[in-house]
């Protein structure tokens, strides 16, 4: 700052004609590379996928157009229905549980806890692991013959039974458990950071008015953390959609295809089964669903902020 | 906050500590299992239970995973791949963070017509499943002559990481008063001067957040690594996959777990050592939108 | 620069191994998923043989999912215009790659080495596209094997079942004695492997071929197929409840440790028994899967060769193709992998009893029509139809109230939609 002020004013003015033009274009020039890369790497490829979804592409891309045939096939596929339903169960439960656990832990941790730093690190570290590692470990823990169930039996609780991982109706919930384990600490960190930023005078005033602590949290503090909810949902939705690795490492979609997710469906049809057209159609539907759910949310949140 | 909330009644304090410690246990158990398993002998693993301490501690699993285990026809362990991962991660993290910083700066302080729309499009890019882009990306890299090079892999990671870094920086810079920028502009400071003299000195916390986030994401990536890296420059996640997915022979869980720990070590160290800055960075504004 | 460095290393290697020869060295990049145990040793031996001939080997191993990950990598490599010299591709996929013009013609090697005389026509057909060799077979696996722990059988006082009906009786006795009758892993390809064996037993080779190779709807949507499903359900009822997601070698481990009595699995299972230092015919027994005596479901591993541009690399690629079919490698590889050589002129003296029995059935079934390609391992049909069948079969296995009649309709619909 000092440096800027000391700069002779004349110099800046002398070259202002050229500089002004440059200055006006500079911001755009700076962001241009990113948007070119992202424009091609995301939107260009999405378009290409969209085009393929109307073709009969099988093994590798071909441009033999067949209209909506692939979408019709998709709608008839029972496996696709299972995958879509699973994404709804998984995504919903995962986001809600992470938020609940994250908020609760953050509030508890905000009560002048000894060793807060250590506890925080313990909650946060799972986020550092790759989903493949998480999946492998949890698969082990939840395996009835190796993990928790055996442990309980060894400790004398022989009637203990926990076989969700091998039950086709319940296996999807084990994936939710592992994913929540991995990401809830991160949500905790976000909310803890948010809580530390809350203006303490508001709370003091509420205390004076005789409000109890739970009431203060529910009525005053949490509503003021709306942007934190926004960031958390963004990150969690991102993780939910990308939890392909977790499913592959934990169940590989099984038992049967009961834990299939749209991303797994898309991957196996495009790459393993040589049904690129069908895979592309499933990718487009997946993107469409994300678009339908996220865009209104993004829009309302971002617009809200502009009003502030 | 902390100065407001008075230390409550004893029972409620105990309950709070109880909940927190129980949660600690839940979060730690998988790590503990991985660690003790990696120090067991294969026999111990088969006979003992999951949480039992090794009957005799051995580092065989670790040395084998590091330098002897087979990941293809070579049996040199995962050590070489470990360094490959660094070669790929470090440039990708730095480039994507720098790009994110500049983008965030422009999208918050130098808004132009349509910049909000661009930001929205960038955000949506966070949600594209990577499986969708594999083939077109491969074709593009092939045309650019970057197929199966580390440069190509770095480029891929930059493209799909820049959305998040931009989000971080934009939200952080939005919270910095515009008046500061306006004053500098009146003084004749240009685009870069303002960035380097005013914003950059304030940006350490958010740089930490972006660096930690990107390092974790890129280090842990498997899909791009396996597809876009060639045989001798594959990252450690690919080697880990080759090691763990044995198709035959007696499974050596101790080696698997040790290899998993080795693969996870850098990110774990980053979180443990720099986790403080991570939280601090999040506190400093990125969460305020 | 990089190219140059590669050549230098290759030269250095050849200089050490073959100081006298002045062969110009090429490089073969080989995509495979042999990353563990005997397979990896065999691949390493192949590498050594190539290096002895003065070529360098660039290893490109991608493990996991029975080559699923490797196929993804291969596709992206091909799309980027940069395929490896050789890749482990199987069955009908070879034809698909050839159709797209990615593969190179190996006829010059095939002619000079007389492949047509060495390899049974049923297998060489799979390796050819429009009459030209584009791939090299490595081995022949028999899929319809039953692996048995004799101690358990003796303890329960039962014999090895020869038919499905006998299997059910034996399994009931075993169950009553507290053993798991059938070790199994609940993964789609393993479900399909057992289904494969039951289908062959119930349909017989002719109808099996009609259903899974020709996709004749009269056989697929028939009462016979319903019987296949109901028998399959009965077989699967002898599997323990925790089978879901289990790896096949873990299941083999259960047979080895005597927790389970039998497993229906291809002859790669032998690798697990050998790793536990067991001898075939004594510590463990191999028998045809119930009801498939004298019949042979084959699964062939092969390397497809991609079109290259560098003269030296093409030379190396051809040498690789030749080396794979040489008796030395055939013996070494197949002893490690549990399969039998693809050459019919080999001396089986050095092989174990299971491999000898396998070779015998292979030869006799080729004569009498009992030799069928395995649909569960991609030799009978396209990966799409195979996947569709997998979905139906694995869904049937995991259904609490499996309905053979309904599932037969589903199977017909699934195959029809994929034709």
Summarize the structure in words.
Chain A has 308 residues and is mainly α. Chain A has helices at residues 2-6, 9-14, 16-52, 69-76, 78-109, 116-124, 131-142, 148-154, 171-196, 200-208, 213-224, 226-241, 244-250, 262-272, 276-307. Chain A has one domain (78-307): Orthogonal Bundle (MetI-like fold), CATH 1.10.3720.10. Chain A contains 15 helices and no strands. Chain A is flat, with a radius of gyration of 26 Å. Chain B has two domains: 10-58, no CATH class; 79-288, MetI-like (MetI-like fold, Orthogonal Bundle), CATH 1.10.3720.10. Chain B is built from 13 helices and no strands. In chain B, helix 10 runs antiparallel to helix 13. The longest helix of chain B has 31 residues, at 79-109. The radius of gyration of chain B is 23 Å and the shape is globular. Chain C contains 19 helices and twelve strands. Chain C has helices at 2-17, 37-52, 68-79, 91-99, 107-113, 115-118, 121-127, 150-156, 164-176, 188-212, 217-220, 223-236, 248-256, 270-275, 311-324, 327-337, 353-368, 383-397, 404-418, and strands spanning 27-32, 56-61, 86-88, 128-129, 132-133, 135-142, 145-148, 180-182, 260-265, 285-288, 296-305, 371-373. In chain C, strands 1, 2, 3, 6, 11 and 12 form a six-stranded mixed sheet that branches. Chain C has a four-stranded mixed sheet with strand order 8-9-7-10. In chain C, strands 4-5 form a two-stranded antiparallel sheet. In chain C, helix 10 (188-212) packs across helix 18, helix 12 (223-236) crosses helix 19 (404-418) and helix 18 runs antiparallel to helix 19 (404-418). Chain A binds chain C through residues 58-60, 73, 76, 78-79, 139, 143-145, 163, 165-168, 171, 248, 251-252, 254-258, 267-269, 271-275, and chain C through 65, 68, 71-72, 75, 78-79, 93, 96-97, 99-100, 186-188, 241-245, 382-384, 386-387, 391, 394-395, 397-399, 417.
Q: What labels describe this entry?
A:
heterotrimer; A: 308 residues; mainly alpha; MetI-like fold; 15 helices; 74% helix; flat; disordered N terminus; C: 419 residues; alpha/beta; D-Maltodextrin-Binding Protein, domain 2; 2 domains; 6-stranded mixed beta sheet; 4-stranded mixed beta sheet; 53% helix; globular
